[in-house]
Amino acid sequence: MLLQRLPWHASELAQRPEHAMEFPDEIHKEIVDWIECCDVVVDEEVVAEDVAGMSCLADLAARVRIELVTGSGVARVAPPTEADFDDTFLRRYYLAFGVLLGDPLGNYGRLYEVKDRGGDYTKSAIPVSQTRAATSLHTDSSALDVLPDLVGLICIRPALKGGSSRIACAIRAYQKLQRSDPQGLSLLEQPHLRDIVTPGADHSQRMNNQFPVFSKHSERGFICRYMRFWIEKGYEKAEVPVPDGLTDALDSLDGCLEEEDSVANFRLERGEMLWVDNCTTLHDRTEYEDDANAPRLLLRQWVKYTG
User: What is the model's pTM?
Assistant: First the structure.
């Protein structure tokens, strides 16, 4: 699937109505009917046939997919308008949505809980999503052979304080580097080591886990795969010197990503969904503080395009 889109900065995205969508009221009944018909489901076993009759939800998923494939690469869907939705409703709604978008991946489980587990990703090979720390702008998956096309989040409970989402356009950063630092960009287009934290990846193949920050695929088109920490940690664990100029090139990229008006910043509220194209849009979140009685909880899906 070849993606074609123009770069955007934060103010342009905010003015683009197609990326922000309302929750159609008719979807509420479709999800409630499914719950009443099947009060228990196994997340990993839900397939397209199980949600084929949800025409309103399918229409919304189709609109989101269009925005992700040919639009901005970012889609936000407002929370359900009905007041009586609970966590079960949100999980089913989100589960069905991922199936309608494409082929959900199960590396972390179909609905992965993004919550603070008390770890420190700088000291252990764990995903940043298991901590409450701020992250840097990144794409998901540190493993060469695991590349989700789409990353989705739904908010079950927001944090007491912080935890805002941040997103930036990788294409815009790439084009800025073409003008400002072509030598550094050339280095970023070469394969580099990455630490492996993605479940299901072969950790014995550490030295083979190398791929560029920026590349182009004959079918997929432009691809950005970036999290600075996992690059630096990859070289450290392999006991291989960081290539000359790479640190400066990463500094240049981070500078482009964090320029004024490059990053869109917003807070997901309960029931709100965010979907991004994982190869053209980087995401991030701010550090957060939990309510001990209702800690922050988001559910994440990784999805591959189909068709």
Answer: 0.94
